[in-house]
Amino acid sequence: MEMKTLDTEFVEIHPRNSYLSPKELIAHRHKEFEVPSGGLKRTQNEGTASELEELKRAQDHLRAQLSVPRIERLGGRALATWNEEQQVAEVLRKDGKFENFGHSEQGKLYLEYYEALFLLELGRLQLEYYGLVVSIEQAYVLLLGELESEKYTNYLVYSALSRAGYIVVRHKPPEATPESVTKADCIWALLKKIVGNHLVPDRIKASPFYAVVDKQMEDNKELIISQKIKEPEDTEESINLQFDSKKRKANDEPIEEPESKKEKLSTSGRSLVDHLKTEFSYTKFEEVFEKFDIVQLERQDYATNEFTVSSLKITFDLHLHNEGYKKSSPNPPNFNVIILTSQEAFPTHDDISKIQNQYLHTAPLLVVSVSESKQIQAFLYFIS
């Protein structure tokens, strides 16, 4: 191997011999290059000598950074080709673990655009397009497109969450089958129909629990309306109206007057409300009232003839690594991700209610906002 030292103190490998010693492999494998910071913002006019000198210095640093020899294991990359028509990357050769990436169709593994670009950045994928190897810079244009779209925002969120340790997969809406409907779903659908004039979804009506729950609620309603309050039995002792004819001496001890009017009106030191709470009717009402779940309505302008479709869209599902995620039989996700651009406002109470009415969510909602400066903020919404 023939080497020579450049003025920039970097090593150039002679192309006639590509073999390196173990020491040289380790040195080039962990080669680091730090670009100096640009400093404060310049306020001078364009075209000055200081500006030209600064631009030349920045170009020299960039050229030196790109000229650093890099050692990579080409055999550790998977191979895929980009299908422009379907907008997916077809994996031709796998290398390493791919249990959290891609989806299978007819025995072939396909990667979404954000998965392919993420693996490209990690150096785990070699992407080809019409037989030519695609660089990372070309992949940004090929996979995300030249025009501004939601693809770039989705990829930023996907990359950030994946690097944070989450398993990020494409959102799969819950299957709309009558078998997946529970008794609780039927109860809530009937309550929304009575309280908010909402239509009951067809998949709820087709459930075998719907007719049973509907009849039980009607029976309970009739029981509450037409129930007869049983009067308590009179267990008080009879009053003896025979008075003693002998005169009794007056009590020498003075009677203490109660300080408050409330105590003065009560012979036992309790108010009138306290006496009413001991009545049988109040106790019966309290027992019935405790069985109800109070539903607070913020607004009452919901559609009476059809469901209003929410403009929010769930893009990703998040799973935790330590919960044994399996792509073939995945568990319910830990979070559903909604991605907002810088122009979109955060969801209101009505927007969350619409998502709940459409049964779009399968887990707590994680709303992620991407600002114009590409900063990401996430907020967790719990639907109760």
From TrEMBL:
Superkingdom in the source lineage: Eukaryota
Keywords associated with the record: tRNA processing
Annotated GO CC locations: tRNA-intron endonuclease complex
Keyword Cytoplasm among UniProt keywords: no
Domain (tRNA-splicing endonuclease subunit Sen54 N-terminal): residue spans on this chain: 65-128
Region (Disordered): 245-268
Pfam families assigned to the protein according to its UniProt record, in alphabetical order: tRNA_int_end_N2 (PF12928)
Keyword Cytoplasm: no
GO biological process, one term: tRNA-type intron splice site recognition and cleavage
Family: Belongs to the SEN54 family.
Official protein name in the record: Uncharacterized protein LOC108047032
Lineage: Eukaryota, Metazoa, Ecdysozoa, Arthropoda, Hexapoda
Gene: LOC108047032
